[in-house]
From TrEMBL:
Region (Disordered): 1-35
Pfam families, per the entry: SWIB (PF02201)
Name the UniProt record assigns to this protein: SWIB/MDM2 domain protein
Stored InterPro entries: SWIB_domain (IPR019835), SWIB_MDM2_dom_sf (IPR036885), SWIB_MDM2_domain (IPR003121)
Domain of life: Bacteria
Bias-annotated ranges (Low complexity): 1-29
SUPFAM superfamilies: SWIB/MDM2 domain
PANTHER family linked: SWI/SNF-RELATED MATRIX-ASSOCIATED ACTIN-DEPENDENT REGULATOR OF CHROMATIN SUBFAMILY D
Residues covered by the DM2 domain: 35-111
Length: 111
């Protein structure tokens, strides 16, 4: 009977699975989604901020963030909120939006 308990104890400890190593996950390179890489034409309001030539969504987001940081439009108290100036308010249609809401609104200005 003691051997049965010992066998059960070793069986339960050997069934735990180890997490995949960090080296294995970093070795596989992520491929970008083609939908994000497709050049999109910005609307006239958004073109005032990012330029009028077609850009991928990722580049549009980067340029909008560059504009926000250059003009210090990020709220000092809550960094997740963006305070819109005249150009940005033409795109966002609100005086203040969250950074997550901003990306959703900007996507409506791309075609």
């Amino acid at each position: 009977m003691a051997t049965a308990k010992k066998a059960a104890a070793t069986k339960s400890t050997s069934t735990t699975k180890s997490a995949p190593s960090a080296a294995a996950s970093s070795a596989t390179k992520r491929t970008p989604n083609a939908a994000f890489m497709k050049p999109m034409t910005p609307s006239a309001e958004l073109a005032a901020i990012v330029g009028s030539k077609p850009l991928p969504r990722t580049e549009v987001t980067k340029k909008v963030w560059d504009y926000i940081k250059k003009n210090k439009l990020q709220d000092a108290a809550n960094k997740r909120m963006i305070n819109a100036d005249a150009k940005l308010q033409a795109v966002l249609k609100k005086p203040q939006v969250s950074m997550f809401e901003m990306t959703k609104i900007i996507s409506t200005h791309l075609s």
